[in-house]
């Protein structure tokens, strides 16, 4: 019997050792590969580029950031004014931003800046949180100073991951209003909820902590969330909304999920009503 107990304990230690090793390898994989779990760069076809060239009121944009990375996108101008108000748009983690041009008729009276993140579309480089923030500041500084843009009427708009970039920009520059579609309090909190057995706080480098900035932002906010969002559960959007210091309105779109929200007419009705305030 003692030999059996000894053998059993040895086997248990071996099993525990294997499990600990497997867990450690999983954590290492999550740490090393986290950018690939957060960012899903999307390409753009030559056919799509050619198609956009035939769009009216769309200017192709090529920029080089202060650290030498080439960014690419478009400036939509649906304004008839000499100096048009500007919306700077930041897309989701799996979004190539020319998709928004499919809704170009929704932006009458505005210019909309659509620049793909590093590594997305024709933009070069690799995306990460800090560089997305710095690129957002650079885009604001460049385009708010253009002769055909009213620098006193610039709004930030973000969807999903891009809400963190839009929130950062609003905290750092003189933005007049913010539209957030499917926002979150922080990527860390969303990830921790989905991975309860993982020490996310220790591993995660791309934290996108919008909640920490919201209480310092006093400009108007329109927050749009999908009732059935499984990617960013509704309570994460509500948590950010509650922290926002400025005038704010939240609309929860019924019977929609994370990837269908932008196709709902109620979503666009709320956005247009918000834009008409400016």
UniProtKB/TrEMBL annotation:
InterPro entries with a match to the protein in the record: AB_hydrolase_1, AB_hydrolase_fold
Keyword ATP-binding attached: no
Domain spans labelled AB hydrolase-1: 91-196
Transmembrane segments: 12-33
Keywords annotated in UniProt: Membrane, Transmembrane, Transmembrane helix
Source superkingdom: Bacteria
Pfam families assigned to the protein according to its UniProt record, in alphabetical order: Abhydrolase_1
Protein name: Pimeloyl-ACP methyl ester carboxylesterase
Organism: Halanaerobacter jeridensis
Lineage: Bacteria, Bacillati, Bacillota, Clostridia, Halanaerobiales
């Amino acid at each position: 019997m003692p030999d059996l107990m000894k053998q059993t304990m040895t086997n248990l230690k071996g099993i525990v050792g294997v499990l600990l090793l497997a867990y450690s390898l999983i954590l290492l994989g999550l740490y090393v590969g986290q950018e690939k779990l957060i960012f899903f760069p999307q390409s753009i076809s030559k056919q799509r580029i050619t198609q956009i060239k035939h769009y009216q009121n769309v200017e192709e944009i090529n920029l080089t950031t202060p650290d030498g990375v080439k960014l690419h996108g478009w400036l939509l101008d649906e304004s008839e004014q000499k100096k048009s108000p500007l919306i700077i748009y930041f897309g989701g983690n799996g979004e190539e931003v020319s998709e928004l041009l499919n809704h170009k008729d929704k932006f009458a009276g505005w210019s909309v800046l659509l620049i793909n993140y590093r590594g997305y579309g024709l933009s070069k480089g690799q995306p990460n949180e800090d560089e997305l923030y710095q690129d957002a500041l650079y885009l604001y500084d460049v385009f708010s100073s253009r002769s055909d843009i009213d620098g006193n009427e610039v709004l930030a708009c973000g969807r999903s991951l891009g809400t963190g970039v839009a929130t950062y920009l609003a905290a750092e520059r003189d933005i007049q209003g913010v539209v957030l579609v499917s926002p979150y309090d922080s990527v860390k909190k969303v990830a921790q909820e989905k991975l309860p057995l993982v020490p996310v706080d220790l591993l995660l480098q791309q934290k996108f902590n919008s909640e920490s900035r919201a209480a310092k932002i006093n400009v108007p906010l329109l927050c749009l969330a999908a009732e059935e969002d499984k990617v960013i559960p509704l309570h994460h959007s509500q948590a950010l909304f509650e922290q926002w210091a400025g005038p704010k309105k939240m609309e929860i779109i019924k019977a929609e999920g994370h990837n269908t929200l932008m196709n709902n007419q109620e979503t666009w009705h709320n956005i247009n009503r918000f834009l008409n305030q400016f």
